[in-house]
Amino acid sequence: MRVLGIETSCDETAVCLIEADGAFGADFKYKVLGNGLLSQAALHAQYGGVFPNLAKREHAKNLVPLLHKALEEAGALQPNTEAAAGAALVPLKAILEREPELFALIVPFLLKFQKPDIDAIAVTAGPGLEPALWVGINFAKALSAVWGIPLVAVNHMEGHIILPMMHICPEQHTNVLQNVSASGSLSVFDFPVLALLISGGHTELVLSKQFGMYQLVGETRDDAAGEAFDKVARLMELGYPGGPLISALAAEAREENIKGDFSFTRPMLHDGTFDFSFSGLKTAVRNIVTKREMTGELKKQVAREFEECVADVLVAKTLRAVEEHDARTVVVGGGVSANTYIRERLAETLEKADASAELLTPPPELATDNALMIALAGYFHALKEDFADPAGLAAKGNLRL
């Protein structure tokens, strides 16, 4: 089965075409036929975070070129020789009524090329920024209407759970930003699976006793971990996105054995729940920033203490959830899962605790949003013929698993 994945939940525009076979298990195999991703991080840096209307505009501008690239890599572009091809585009005007820029780009593309060999179109329906989500959804609806291909609505967070479960052939494992194809299979692991989802919008612990069934165990009550990284970086005038910048300073501090004369409270560490709260850390950092001169050394001290504080909470709560729910596998997904220190702390803690839980993490370059995870999640829904009604498919910014 060939599945086209489309991802526009935040500030990455991504399109990916995969070919997959087999049910969720040892027989499952997949191959990336074509892949494209463009990050808007540099554009949003001037705002210190993602500006929704700018994200929407960039998605509209980039989706058709990325589709062209992905299909070209897959060898799936064939000239359209049908004289009546224009008649098939009639529904587009209504579907893309609120996407004039996307409409202007997609019409010439659809007139020029034939319907590709695709069995399903998977698109992120949420959670995320609704203006951004709508662009991808309307794009998917337009392709579905013209090509007559069924739609699959994918929960973005399910994509972040599924991707770490995948084995990627090492010789084909390269940076997704280079649009290089990859192939692989399902890793060998046992249920129950506990997923730690850490990103700019989410910090959640999700329990899965069987594939496709999810139970929310814990969640953030205010700022997500990634959001806290960005806000703290902004306070220290480091730039955006904040996660990699803070992590780099923290790594330097540990390497140079630099440690401050202060410590931050580990929020909700011993409250008995699996919930999180990181907004207080922002206040703690602000108190340091406003009372002291922010030298280069102090920035390293703050970055180290902040990162270690976040890691302490994430690791401790994850371990307790593993023990309470007898999880056999821990999956870590979302943009913050690229953080090397947090990965290492989780691995060391699980090993020392003899928790008998295997840790699965995505390749760092696939930790951030991408269309491969949407295509993979969409494939498993398409296998069950779990298709979406285009008329009822809508963006849901707060969609839950």
List keywords for this structure.
12 helices; 2 domains; Nucleotidyltransferase, domain 5; globular; 19% strand; seven-stranded mixed β-sheet; 12 strands; 401 residues; five-stranded mixed β-sheet; alpha/beta
Verbal overview:
This protein is an alpha/beta fold and 401 residues long. The protein folds into two domains: 2-186 and 369-383, Nucleotidyltransferase, domain 5 (2-Layer Sandwich), CATH 3.30.420.40; 193-327 and 335-364, Nucleotidyltransferase, domain 5 (2-Layer Sandwich), CATH 3.30.420.40. Helices cover 40% and strands 19% of the residues. The protein has twelve helices and twelve strands. It has a seven-stranded mixed beta sheet with strand order 5-4-1-2-3-7-6, sandwiched between helices. A five-stranded mixed beta sheet has the order 10-9-8-11-12. A hairpin with a 7-residue loop joins β2 (12-21) and β3 (29-39). The longest helix is centred in the last third of the chain and has 30 residues, at 296-325.
Q: How is the topology of this model organized?
A:
Blueprint lengths: L1 E6 L4 E10 L7 E11 L1 H4 L7 H22 L18 H4 L4 H13 L7 E7 L3 H18 L3 E5 H7 L3 E3 L14 E4 L6 E6 L4 E8 L2 E7 L5 H11 L6 H14 L23 H13 L4 H30 L3 E5 L6 H13 L5 E3 L10 H13 L18
Parallel strand pairs: 1-4, 4-5, 8-11, 11-12
Antiparallel strand pairs: 1-2, 2-3, 3-7, 6-7, 8-9, 9-10
